[in-house]
Specification:
The chain is of the alpha/beta class. The chain has a 7-stranded mixed beta sheet with strand order 3-2-1-4-5-7-6, with helices on both faces. It starts with 14 loop residues before the first helix and ends in a 14-residue tail after the last strand. 39% of the residues are buried. The N terminus and C terminus are likely disordered.
Length: 258
C-alpha cells in the first residue's frame, strides 16, 4: 500500500461552505465535549492550537497555563480574540503552520499541540507535521483528529477544501515519518459515516444539514456510551495521540490502541 493517505486532489474551497461549517460547529457542543474528554488525559499545560478557528475547543482549555491559537484566517483570529477578552493567558495569532516563520513560537515551550480537523486541509502536510514537531519541547504531544475513510471522500470534502481522508495506517505512517511515536490511534463516530456518505456521496451537499447536526448532537451521549463498550472498527474520524521522540513525559498514557 502506498504511504500516501489519499491522492492529492486539486481543491478550491467554497468560502460559503467553510463559513457554514465553522458556524454550524456551534450546533455540536456535546460532540466537542466528547472529543475533549477523549483528549483530556493527554493535554498538558502549555497548549498550541493549530487551526483554532473560532475557539470552539479553546473554551475547554481555560484552566491551562497558556493556550496559543493560530489560524490562517484573520477573521477567525479576530472572533477568537473577542470570545476570550478576560483570559490573559489565552492568545491568538495569524500564522501558516507550513511557513517556517511559525517556528518563532517555539519559545512558548509547548508541551501539547492540538490539530482538530486541520491536517486534511493542508496540501504540504509533511511540512506542517515537521513544524509542529519543531514547536514542541522534548516529549511533547500532538493530538490530531482527522477525517477517516478515503471511500467517503465526496462533495462536502471538496467544498470545504479537504485534500484527503485518512486510514489508521496512513495516519500512523505520516506521524512516524515526522518523528512522532504513536501513543493512541483509533477510529470514532461510527454512526457519522452514514450521514457523511448520504450527504457527500449520494446527495452531493456542500455542508451537513443543520437538522442532522442537531439530531446527532442529541445522540452523542448514546453514541459515546456504545463506543466505549465496543470500540468501532471504522468511523467518520480518527483520533491520534503522538509523542515527539521516545521521551516519557509526566502526562498519563492510556493503553495503546492499534
Amino acid at each position: 500500500m502506498s504511504s500516501k493517505a489519499e491522492p492529492v486532489r486539486a481543491v478550491s474551497p467554497d468560502s460559503w461552505a467553510l463559513n457554514q461549517v465553522r458556524e454550524r460547529r456551534f450546533l455540536l457542543d456535546r460532540c466537542d465535549a466528547w472529543l475533549f474528554e477523549e483528549m483530556k488525559p493527554f493535554v498538558g499545560e502549555r497548549v498550541l492550537e493549530v487551526g483554532c478557528g473560532y475557539g470552539n475547543l479553546t473554551q475547554h482549555l481555560l484552566s491551562r497555563e497558556v493556550v496559543v491559537g493560530i489560524d490562517l484566517s484573520s477573521e477567525s483570529i479576530a472572533i477568537f480574540r473577542e470570545r476570550f477578552p478576560d483570559h490573559p493567558h489565552i492568545h491568538a495569532f495569524v500564522y501558516d503552520i507550513t511557513d517556517p516563520q511559525v517556528l518563532e513560537l517555539a519559545s512558548w515551550g509547548f508541551d501539547t499541540a492540538i490539530a482538530l480537523n486541520v491536517l486534511e486541509h493542508i496540501e504540504q502536510e509533511e511540512k506542517a507535521l515537521e513544524h509542529i514537531a519543531g514547536l514542541l519541547r522534548p516529549g511533547g504531544r500532538l493530538i490530531a483528529i482527522v477525517p477517516a475513510l478515503p471511500a467517503l471522500f465526496g462533495s462536502m470534502d471538496r467544498a470545504i477544501g479537504h485534500y484527503r481522508r485518512y486510514t489508521a495506517r496512513t495516519l500512523r505512517e505520516r506521524l512516524e515519518q515526522a518523528g512522532f511515536s504513536i501513543l493512541l490511534l483509533r477510529y470514532y463516530n461510527f454512526l457519522g459515516t452514514f450521514g457523511w456518505w448520504l450527504n457527500g456521496r449520494l446527495l452531493h451537499h456542500s455542508v451537513p444539514p443543520a437538522g442532522q447536526l442537531r439530531l446527532f448532537n442529541r445522540l452523542v451521549p448514546l453514541v459515546r456510551a456504545v463506543e466505549r463498550l465496543v470500540p468501532p472498527p471504522i468511523g467518520l474520524s480518527l483520533l491520534a495521540v503522538a509523542q515527539i521522540g521516545w521521551f516519557l513525559s509526566e502526562i498519563p498514557s492510556p493503553p495503546l490502541s492499534r
